């Protein structure tokens, strides 16, 4: 990586900037272990109102001792600084785009694409494994879960899936997205996961500690000197449904995150301002609610609810 403004914090620990094509840079915090091992890349702040990962990486950097670490941690704690400091859900305010929907990206694109290009060209080559930290946005309630690439190269998918089982969340979900930070990494041969903890523009110490335990267990799985713990209660999704709004309207959910649902249950209703029904969302099968929006006003195409069934 072409890092600048490198500051040595302590032996084995440094903070630096990774320059962006359009100016400015991304903060990169490095912990170089005393022993050989893999490089784990941890990213947070892709969406500026998803806070648990940002706080967790601050604490991880403070608490990890290089003299006990096997390998290297590369922490990118805040990829979307504009969205974070301006409190803008989901988007990079400089161009109004969702950073997690522009991978892979050109170097000469808008601000979101410049960030994505820098990550894919400068950070991916350093990674033996990548974990992208997310949560429900300021308008979402989220069941803690982990996404793994369901249709990458078989070895990448299996390595990612095995690692997912070591994170302290109840569900692992195979996904086929191609334009996200972790999914693009997987398609370049890097085992990768997306961890979801938190939501509603909030964070708590309990959530941060849950995330830190998950990260340290992943480090153990990778042979980086910490203890690996298989989360034996974790279930794998066999099918997931993502429901979007058919129109601008008022969203009235009838479920909550992690709720068990039955086929035919009404999960929510979209209505016009004067109360006319616009869309009724019913469960297609027995399952569990992954997340839903709590926003009353939604626009056409906005995510309303996601649910799945387990194997």
Give the overall shape, derived from the CA principal axes: globular
* Largest sheet: number of strands, sense, barrel closure: 14 strands, mixed
Order of helices and strands: EEEEHEHHEEEHEHEHEEEEEEEE
Gyration radius, rounded: 19 Å
Average pLDDT? 97
Low-confidence stretches: none
Structure described in brief:
By secondary structure, this protein is an alpha+beta fold.
Task: Describe what this molecule looks like in 3D.
By secondary structure, the chain is α+β, with helices and mostly antiparallel strands. It has six helices and 18 strands. The strands form two sheets. Strands 1, 2, 3, 4, 5, 6, 7, 8, 9, 10, 11, 13, 16 and 18 form a 14-stranded mixed β-sheet that branches. Helix 1 packs across helix 6 (205-221). The radius of gyration is 19 Å and the shape is globular. The relative contact order is 0.13.
Give the secondary structure arrangement, pairings included.
Blueprint: E1 4-10, E2 13-19, E3 25-32, E4 35-43, H1 52-63, E5 70-76, H2 81-86, H3 111-123, E6 129-134, E7 140-142, E8 145-149, H4 154-164, E9 171-175, H5 181-187, E10 192-196, H6 205-221, E11 235-244, E12 249-253, E13 260-261, E14 266-271, E15 277-282, E16 287-293, E17 297-298, E18 303-310
Parallel strand pairs: 4-5, 4-6, 6-10, 8-9, 9-11
Antiparallel strand pairs: 1-2, 2-3, 3-5, 7-16, 8-10, 11-18, 12-14, 12-17, 13-16, 14-15, 16-18
Helix pairs in contact: 1-6
């Amino acid at each position: 990586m072409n890092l600048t403004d490198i500051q040595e914090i302590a032996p084995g620990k440094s903070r630096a900037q990774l320059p962006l094509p359009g100016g400015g840079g991304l903060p990169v915090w490095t912990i170089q272990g005393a022993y050989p091992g893999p490089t784990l890349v941890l990213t947070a702040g892709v969406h500026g109102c998803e806070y648990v990962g940002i706080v967790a990486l601050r604490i991880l950097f403070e608490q990890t001792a290089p003299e006990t670490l096997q390998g290297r941690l590369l922490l990118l704690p805040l990829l979307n600084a504009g969205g974070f400091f301006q409190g803008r859900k989901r988007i990079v305010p400089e161009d109004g785009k969702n950073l997690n929907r522009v991978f892979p990206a050109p170097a000469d694109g808008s601000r979101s694409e410049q960030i994505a290009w820098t990550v894919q060209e400068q950070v991916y080559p350093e990674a033996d494994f990548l974990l992208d930290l997310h949560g429900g946005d300021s308008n979402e309630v989220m069941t803690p879960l982990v996404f793994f690439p369901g249709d990458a190269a078989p070895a990448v998918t299996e390595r990612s899936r095995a690692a997912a089982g070591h994170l302290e969340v109840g569900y692992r979900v195979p996904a086929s997205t191609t334009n996200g930070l972790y999914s693009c990494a997987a398609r370049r041969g890097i085992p990768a996961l997306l961890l979801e903890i938190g939501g509603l523009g909030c964070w708590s110490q309990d959530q941060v500690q849950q995330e830190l335990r998950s990260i340290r267990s992943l480090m153990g799985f990778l042979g980086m000197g910490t203890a690996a713990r298989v989360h034996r209660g974790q279930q794998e999704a066999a099918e997931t449904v993502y429901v979007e709004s058919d129109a601008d309207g008022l969203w009235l959910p009838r479920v909550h995150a992690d709720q068990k649902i039955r086929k035919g249950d009404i999960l929510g209703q979209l209505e016009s301002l004067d109360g006319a029904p616009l869309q009724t969302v019913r469960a297609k099968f027995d399952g569990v609610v992954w997340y839903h929006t709590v926003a009353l006003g939604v626009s056409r195409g906005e995510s309303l609810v996601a649910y799945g069934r387990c194997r």
